[in-house]
Design brief:
The structure is a single chain. With about 325 residues, the chain is an alpha/beta fold. It has three domains: about 120 residues, HAD superfamily/HAD-like (Rossmann fold, 3-Layer(aba) Sandwich); about 110 residues, Rossmann fold (3-Layer(aba) Sandwich); about 60 residues, 2-Layer Sandwich (GMP Synthetase, Chain A, domain 3), CATH 3.30.300.290. It has eleven helices and 19 strands. The strands form five sheets. Strands 5-4-1-13-14-15 form a six-stranded parallel beta sheet, sandwiched between helices. A five-stranded parallel beta sheet has the order 7-6-8-9-12. Helix 3 packs parallel to helix 4 and helix 5 packs across helix 6. The chain is globular, with a radius of gyration of 21 Å. InterPro entries: GNAT-like, HAD-like_sf, HAD-SF_hydro_IIA, HAD_sf. GO terms for molecular function: phosphatase activity. One of its GO terms (cellular component) is cytoplasm.
């Protein structure tokens, strides 16, 4: 570890993938270099993804092709975790109806479960994960099976997936179809914000002080908070500055940065909230349920300052700008 920067305070960095390391299949600028820098200093690295459409070996191959050397053992997916959970809960060979991609099907088969195609096959469980080819027919079969008593398991409930074109429907949107049809929640959600992926990564590496890095407050950061781990929110994916300002306590990160370069700056320059009312050329003043941002500088510093007042009761809608730079930043955040 290297003293003096944020990453240096941790013996394992657990990365989310979509929106942090890559978008769909292209690396985010600076991500391969940042991870290579961690490897160079001997910091352990792991990857924990809610995306159930790829197996660990496939993800490792994708990362390696992007210039990020990765081993399958370093990659934990919600598909693999779901297969492990079901293998523990169901008898060997139990029939399972899968709503999702081939990767999820392969994980369940490898875990010793039998895949079936319809509710008429009396599945013991319905397993739902993201798959770009999921359509009405399989959703209808899943609905019938759950109504008949099958255990309903979701690999994750991410409403969206990040992409270069903007957020796309994620598994949570597909889960919402069944939720509407069945008027109930899944029996079990395996992936983040449940802490299992993070705690498993720490156990596998023997880490005593892990750091979670993610782009989603509702999965990555909430999962880290639930697991009792420090976290870094990067603003390269789904959650926005406005989301951070409105975050409830269970979804508040330890640090925030524009991208993964924040790992190599002083921890104090990423800690959130930033108290004291001023820093980096910005000033925040509060008057009851309203706050004013003045000055200019790095927008992330302004965000950290504003979190101090919005997390203390000022609604994000009550924040206004007193300078041109402040108004421009707030407008860019949709405030």
């Amino acid at each position: 570890m290297s003293a003096g920067d944020l990453a240096g305070g941790y013996d394992l960095v657990v990365f989310d993938l979509d929106g942090v390391v890559y978008l769909i299949d292209k690396p985010i600028g600076g991500a391969p270099e940042a991870i290579e820098q961690l490897h160079g200093r001997g910091t352990a690295v792991a990857y924990a993804t809610n995306n159930a459409s790829r197996r660990s070996a496939d993800v490792a191959g994708l990362l390696t092709g992007m210039g990020v050397p990765a081993r399958p053992a370093e990659v934990l997916t919600s598909a693999g975790a779901t297969a492990t959970v079901l293998a523990e809960r169901l008898p060997a060979g139990a029939p399972v109806l899968v709503v999702g991609a081939d990767a999820l099907r392969a994980e369940l088969t490898e875990a010793g479960l039998t895949l079936v195609e319809s509710a008429g096959d009396n599945p013991a469980a319905v397993v739902q994960g993201y798959g770009p080819e999921v359509g009405w027919r399989i959703l209808a079969e899943a609905s019938l099976a759950v109504r008949d008593g099958a255990l309903w398991v979701a690999t994750n409930t991410d409403r969206t997936l990040p992409s270069p074109r903007g957020p796309l429907p994620g598994n949570g949107s597909l889960v919402a179809v069944l939720r509407t049809a069945l008027d109930r929640e899944p029996d079990l959600v395996v992936g983040k914000p449940e802490p299992a992926l993070f705690t498993t990564a720490a156990a596998l590496s023997g880490a005593e002080r892990p750091l979670v890095v993610g782009d989603r407050l509702d999965t990555d950061i909430q999962g880290a908070v639930t697991a009792g781990l420090d976290s870094l929110l990067v603003l390269t994916g789904v959650s926005t500055p406005a989301d951070l300002l409105a975050a409830e306590p269970a979804r508040r990160p330890t640090f925030v940065a524009a991208d993964l370069s924040g790992l190599f700056g002083p921890a104090a320059t990423a800690a959130v909230p930033l108290t004291g009312g001023e820093g980096g050329g910005w000033r925040v003043s509060r008057d009851g349920d309203a706050a004013t941002l003045d000055g200019s500088g790095d927008p992330v510093v302004a965000l950290r300052l504003l979190c101090a007042v919005t997390w203390d009761g000022v609604p994000p809608s009550g924040v206004t700008g007193a300078s041109d730079a402040a108004r421009e930043v707030l407008a860019g955040w949709g405030l």
